[in-house]
């Protein structure tokens, strides 16, 4: 699962995907979409665009850029293709914004407490792969996908892909923060003391 702002190193070895990478470089976008697999449709209806910087290696360093919704599925030379529309969070103002900022700060503090309370070996694994928890954004609505720390947290929380996908598809930062808070409450209660 790929998320906005989160690194996603890929090992590209199948010829069809090497071709896909080459074609996305030739178009000049240097981007391609990634979705999790779906037994019925081939791939999920939501995903994240990845941007890469080619250097001739078989491992491609990518980073999540923007979320999207699949409008139609296709195939070309053995790899999946799709027509997509980009997702953006709905912005709120006034009283709703004041509530959102309060929720944002509260969930960030809860996330920081959860991460701080992890055992050192677990923290080390997370830090080596994902880096540190990004700092709190003074304007959580500045990015069309919301604050980077929320995506970092979704990448490190012990969640199944389907749950991550549901949260990735949300266009309400408030709803996404509430979902993250529920997960944090669950993993905090579940952990042995």
From TrEMBL:
Lon N-terminal domain ranges (all copies): 1-188
Cited InterPro entries: Lon_prtase_N (IPR003111), Lon_prtase_N_sf (IPR046336), PUA-like_sf (IPR015947)
Pfam families: LON_substr_bdg
One term of GO molecular function: ubiquitin protein ligase activity
Superkingdom of the organism of origin: Eukaryota
Name listed for the protein in its UniProt record: Si:ch1073-440b2.1
Source organism of this protein record: Amphilophus citrinellus
């Amino acid at each position: 699962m790929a998320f906005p702002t989160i690194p996603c190193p890929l090992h590209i070895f199948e010829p069809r995907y090497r071709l896909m990478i080459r074609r996305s470089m030739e178009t000049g976008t240097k981007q391609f979409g990634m979705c999790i697999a779906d037994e019925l449709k081939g791939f999920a209806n939501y995903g994240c665009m990845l941007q890469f910087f080619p250097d001739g290696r078989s491992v491609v360093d990518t980073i999540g850029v923007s979320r999207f919704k699949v409008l139609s599925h296709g195939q070309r030379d053995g790899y999946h293709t799709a027509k997509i529309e980009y997702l953006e969070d709905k912005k709120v103002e006034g009283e709703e914004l004041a509530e959102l900022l309060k929720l944002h700060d509260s969930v960030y503090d809860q996330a920081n407490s959860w991460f701080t309370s992890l055992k050192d070996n677990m923290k080390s694994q997370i830090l080596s792969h994902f880096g540190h928890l990004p700092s709190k954004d003074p304007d959580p609505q500045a990015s069309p996908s919301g604050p980077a720390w929320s995506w970092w947290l979704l990448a490190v929380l012990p969640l199944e892909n389907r749950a991550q996908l549901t949260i990735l598809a949300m266009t309400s930062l408030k709803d996404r923060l509430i979902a993250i808070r529920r997960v944090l409450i669950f993993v905090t209660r579940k952990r042995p003391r």
